[in-house]
Design a protein that fits this description.
Length: about 160
C-alpha cells in the first residue's frame, strides 16, 4: 500500500471581516440612527412614488384597451410588475398582491386579445381604491376577500385558456 500523505486543511482568510472588523461593535451607532431618520423622512415620499406607479398602471391600461397589442401588453405587464415590487416596499402589501395577480393573468395568456379587459379593469380599479383609501393593513378583510376573488378568477381564466 502506498504511503498516505497527511491531510492538510487550509482556511482562506476572510478579507471582508478583516476590512470591516470582527464584530458589529465597531459600527457607529450615530450613523445607524441618521440612516433610520433619513428612511423615516423618505416614508412620506413613498406614498407619492406609489401614486406615480398607480398612475402609470392606469395609463398602461388605457393604452392597452385602445390598442390591445404586444407592445401595450408588455407595457401593462411592466407597470403591474413595478407595482408588485414597489407596493410591498412602500408598505402597501395588498396592492402588491393584486398587482401580482394582474401580472399572473397577463403573463399566463400569450395573445393580447385573449386577456379579458374586464379582469384587467377589476385589478386596476381595486389597486386604485386601495391607494386612494391608503389601505396598508394586510389584514383588511374586505381587501383580502377582493384579492382572493381576483386571484380565483385569474386561475379560472388561465385554466380555461389551456
Amino acid at each position: 500500500m502506498a504511503k498516505q500523505l497527511p491531510i492538510e486543511i487550509f482556511m482562506p482568510p476572510n478579507m471582508l471581516k478583516a476590512k470591516v472588523g470582527g464584530s458589529i461593535a465597531g459600527l457607529d451607532s450615530s450613523m445607524i440612527k441618521r440612516a433610520e431618520a433619513a428612511m423615516e423622512e423618505m416614508k412620506t415620499e413613498f406614498v407619492n412614488w406609489l401614486g406615480n406607479d398607480v398612475d402609470k398602471l392606469i395609463e398602461a391600461r388605457d393604452r392597452f384597451a385602445a390598442l390591445c397589442d404586444a407592445e401595450t401588453r408588455a407595457e401593462l405587464f411592466r407597470a403591474g410588475h413595478d407595482l408588485k415590487g414597489g407596493a410591498q416596499t412602500y408598505e402597501f402589501p395588498l396592492i402588491a398582491r393584486m398587482a401580482s395577480s394582474l401580472c399572473k393573468l397577463i403573463d399566463g395568456l400569450e395573445n393580447a386579445d385573449a386577456i379579458p379587459l374586464a379582469m384587467i379593469d377589476a385589478h386596476v380599479d381595486a389597486i386604485r381604491v386601495l391607494y386612494r383609501d391608503k389601505i396598508k393593513d394586510a389584514q383588511n378583510r374586505m381587501a383580502i376577500m377582493l384579492s382572493e376573488e381576483l386571484e380565483s378568477r385569474v386561475t379560472e381564466t388561465l385554466e380555461k385558456a389551456r
